[in-house]
Design a protein that fits this description.
Length: 221
C-alpha cells in the first residue's frame, strides 16, 4: 500500500533559508563566497545552492535550501577568502535545526590576516612539498580541504619579514578555525602542522632565495 506523506513530515517539510553576514574592521565583506553544510560524520551534505552564494553590499548571504531531509540538519557555513585580507572562516553549528524555520547566524566579525590579501597564494604548490609529484599534492589538497590554508602558508614563506614559526603558527590557527571543533579535521591539521614544523625549514629557504641574510635567517626562527 502507498504510504501517505502525512506520515512522513520530515520529507514533506518546506525548504528553509540560512542567513549570515560578515564584516571586517567594521565594514561589510562584499563578494565573499559563502557555502553552508550539514555536519555529518565522514561527509558533509550541502545546505542551499551547491555553488554557494556571494555576500551582497551589506556583507550578507541568504541561502535557500529546498531539499527533503530525513532528519534535522546540523547547519554551519563557511566563507571563503577573496583577497580582502581574511582567512577562511567557519561559523558555529546549529545542531538539529528545525527545517521549518530560518537559520540565522547574525553578523560575524572576521579578523584581518595579511597572508590572505590580494592575489595570495599566486605561487603556491598546494598542500605538500614542492618535490612531491603534483598528483600527490593534489590528492593531499583535495582530501584535507586545506587548499586556502596551504596557499596562505606558501605566501607567508615567501615573506622575508616573517619568521617561519609565525608562518607555521598562523597555518595551524587557520586550519583549526576551519575545523571548528571537528576532531577528525583537527587531527589532520595536527599532522600537517607537525610536518611543516619539523621539515619546513628547507622549503622556507628555497622560497626566500631572493631575500637578504636576515630574511633567510628567519627560516630558522
Amino acid at each position: 500500500a502507498a504510504i501517505s506523506l502525512f506520515y512522513l513530515p520530515s520529507l514533506a517539510s518546506a525548504g528553509f533559508t540560512t542567513n549570515v553576514c560578515f564584516t571586517l574592521n567594521g565594514g561589510p565583506i562584499v563578494g565573499g563566497l559563502v557555502q553552508c553544510w550539514d555536519d555529518d560524520y565522514g561527509w558533509d551534505d550541502r545546505v542551499g545552492p551547491s555553488g554557494g552564494v556571494l555576500t551582497d553590499a551589506n556583507g550578507c548571504a541568504s541561502l535557500y535550501d529546498n531539499q527533503w531531509w530525513w532528519e534535522s540538519p546540523d547547519v554551519y557555513c563557511v566563507i571563503n577568502p577573496n583577497g580582502d585580507c581574511y582567512a577562511e572562516t567557519t561559523t558555529s553549528t546549529k545542531n538539529n535545526h528545525n527545517k521549518r524555520r530560518t537559520a540565522n547566524f547574525g553578523t560575524i566579525p572576521l579578523t584581518f590576516d595579511d597572508d590572505y590579501c590580494g592575489d595570495y597564494g599566486y605561487d603556491n604548490n598546494g598542500c605538500g612539498p614542492a618535490d612531491f609529484p603534483s598528483w600527490l599534492r593534489n590528492v593531499l589538497t583535495d582530501i584535507s580541504g586545506f587548499e586556502n590554508q596551504c596557499a596562505a602558508h606558501d605566501t607567508c614563506y615567501f615573506d622575508c619579514d616573517k619568521t617561519r614559526s609565525e608562518c607555521d603558527g598562523d597555518f595551524n590557527d587557520d586550519m583549526m578555525a576551519t575545523c571548528a571543533g571537528q576532531s577528525d579535521c583537527e587531527f589532520l591539521a595536527y599532522l600537517f602542522f607537525e610536518a611543516v614544523d619539523t621539515y619546513g625549514r628547507d622549503a622556507c629557504e628555497v622560497d626566500r632565495s631572493s631575500c637578504d641574510a636576515d630574511g633567510m635567517a628567519r627560516c630558522s626562527q
